[in-house]
Write a structure and sequence with these properties.
The protein has 22 helices and eleven strands. It is an alpha/beta fold and 541 residues long. It folds into four domains: 80 residues, no CATH class; 158 residues, P-loop containing nucleotide triphosphate hydrolases (Rossmann fold); 104 residues, no CATH class; 91 residues, Sporulation related repeat (Alpha-Beta Plaits, 2-Layer Sandwich). Helix 3 packs across helix 4. InterPro entries: AAA_22, ExeA_AAA_ATPase_DNA-bind, P-loop_NTPase, SPOR-like_dom, SPOR-like_sf.
Length: 541
């Protein structure tokens, strides 16, 4: 694939780039400017300083294609005037003997032809000390030293350490990270200095290609867009060598995008956390709503059966038969009790409390208090007519009661006992009082505020008009209003009855006419005017 990208068939890749982007030159074939980022400039300055100072062997490591050779070339270009660089090719360093031959060619007469490899290497470093005295230090460059046999690299390092290091030639080893174990040195040793070139980041790739694209006449925004820059970084893996190989294919859209699959493989659960949380909350709320709906539907569908209380009533009156009531279910029919004996006096007294026959018959409740109040009310309403009727119909009523008692023996025991109890309760107060008397008078009313209380009869005797402000069943209602407006001297309250209950009214003033009363209303406080006071005659209270 790489060969296909770099092939020159069909005009090669650069003509295609030139045709598509209008480039004047190949930006990937430019050695200048030197790339200073990604710690390259720092490594270059360190090499320049330590090569001139001596005293330590230098080891430069980095991945394949990280720019080690380019860095050594920049070192030679910038320091060639004051340093004597001698490159030892990797192909010539196959054995210690090959190393001795190469060094003998440099030192010439300083190394005898019959010297062994180790002695030849040691003599070379002693000979290099003389060049420093002449003002020029020698530097040995061993590029790709990780491919050199380990014994050769160790022999060079041993010869340097055995010489006077401040004046001897400085060996510079360059290679991958496997070079340090081959040299058998510790990184913490003071005799060897280690430099490492890290891979390129996405920003480093942008900084490397931007000046070259500008010099070639291309558009940086088009060739280094976010998508293209992302693909260049993922495919080059931070290496200058891979970057130069894959960049033409990326710019010409000839390289498949593998970053998409990597992004998909790199998806984590955090990217789905918020959507999953939203779905969980939605499902929980739906479940709660459905549960409440089911409960409400169940409550509505459940029949609300409430037992209605059965009120038993007995109609009391002359010439009136007992209305038959629905018989409740019973397990066994009990014999009816003997009829209650009724004497003539009791019938006469009970008939005195019954209204005339032409009036509607009142229904008497089985409760004793209701029966007594009903009979006493009837007696008070027409005492004379009731007494006269009692004398005339006493014998007839006694005979009718005996006939009814004998004919109703088959009625339910519960109904008969209820009727008997009611009859007994009705007759007991009548027997105690031979003749109905007047109702006991209620206790005299004592006003809580006598200074503002006016009797109702006195108010009705007036011939003028008054203003009614408020009324109610409680005396405290009237007192609260009077105490709220003590400055109104004309305020007074009286007591009457409404539906047999006390009825308290607050009135204001005594006016000769309705117009005068209406004018007085306008002088009242605003809160009282908003209550719509009632202008009425005093006699109508």
């Amino acid at each position: 694939m790489v060969d296909g990208l770099n092939s020159v068939e069909d005009g090669g890749l650069f003509p295609r780039l030139q045709h598509r982007y209008g480039l004047r030159a190949d930006p990937l074939d430019m050695d200048t400017p030197f790339f200073p980022d990604a710690s390259r400039q720092h490594s270059l300055e360190t090499l320049r300083h330590l090569c001139g100072f001596g005293d330590m062997a230098l080891v430069l490591t980095g991945a394949v294609g990280s720019g080690k050779t380019r860095l050594l070339g920049e070192l030679i270009r910038s320091e060639a005037a004051r340093l004597d660089f001698h490159r030892l090719p990797t192909a010539a360093l196959t054995s210690p003997q090959a190393l001795a031959r190469d060094l003998r060619a440099v030192a010439r007469s300083a190394i005898a032809p019959d010297d062994g490899p180790r002695e030849a290497v040691f003599k070379f470093f002693r000979w290099s000390q003389a060049k420093v005295r002449k003002g020029q230090r020698m530097v040995l460059l061993i590029d790709d030293a990780d491919k050199v046999p380990p014994e050769v690299s160790r022999l060079i390092l041993s010869g340097f350490l055995a010489s006077e290091r401040a004046m001897a030639a400085v060996p510079v080893f360059s290679g991958t990270e496997a070079l340090l174990p081959l040299l058998d040195v510790d990184e913490d040793t003071l005799s060897v200095h280690h430099l490492h070139l890290r891979p390129l980041e996405k920003s480093d790739i942008y900084a490397y290609l931007e000046p070259r694209i500008q010099r070639a006449g291309g558009r940086v925004s088009e060739l280094l867009s976010n998508s293209k820059l992302e693909r260049l970084h993922s495919l080059s893996q931070g290496s200058f060598g891979r970057l130069k190989r894959i960049t033409p294919g990326v710019w010409l859209d000839m390289v498949a995008d593998k970053s998409g699959s990597r992004r998909r493989a790199g998806l984590s659960w955090r990217q789905f956390a918020w959507p999953a949380l939203a779905l969980i909350i939605l499902a929980g709320s739906w479940w709660l709503v459905s549960l409440q709906y089911d409960h409400s539907v169940a409550d509505q569908s459940a029949p609300k059966t409430k037992a209605e209380p059965v009120r038993k009533s007995v109609t009391v009156g002359p010439d009136t038969e007992l209305a038959p009531e629905p018989e409740p279910e019973r397990e066994a029919v009990e014999p009816a009790p003997a009829p209650v004996p009724v004497n003539d006096d009791a019938v006469a007294e009970s008939s005195a409390s019954v209204p005339p026959a032409n009036d509607p018959e009142p229904a008497v409740d089985t409760e004793p208090s209701a029966v007594v109040s009903e009979s006493s009310a009837s007696a008070n309403a027409e005492p004379q007519s009731g007494a006269a009727g009692a004398g005339e119909s006493a014998p007839t009523e006694a005979a009718d009661v005996q006939k009814k008692s004998s004919s109703e023996e088959t009625v339910d025991a519960v109904t008969d006992s209820d009727v008997a109890a009611v009859s007994a309760q009705v007759s007991e107060p009548d027997e105690a009082k031979p003749a109905p008397g007047p109702e006991p008078s209620e206790p005299a009313f004592k006003p809580a505020l006598p200074a503002r209380f006016v009797d109702l009869d006195r108010l009705r005797d007036r011939t003028g008009w008054t203003v009614q402000l408020i009324a109610g069943h409680l005396e405290s209602t009237a007192l609260n209003l009077i105490r709220q407006y003590p400055e109104l001297d004309g305020l007074a309250y009286t007591r009457s009855k409404l539906k047999d209950k006390p009825w308290f009214m607050v009135v204001y003033g005594d006016f000769v006419s309705s117009d005068a009363a209406h004018e007085a209303v306008q002088s009242l406080p605003e809160a009282l005017r908003k209550q719509s006071p009632w202008v009425r005659r005093s006699a109508d209270l």
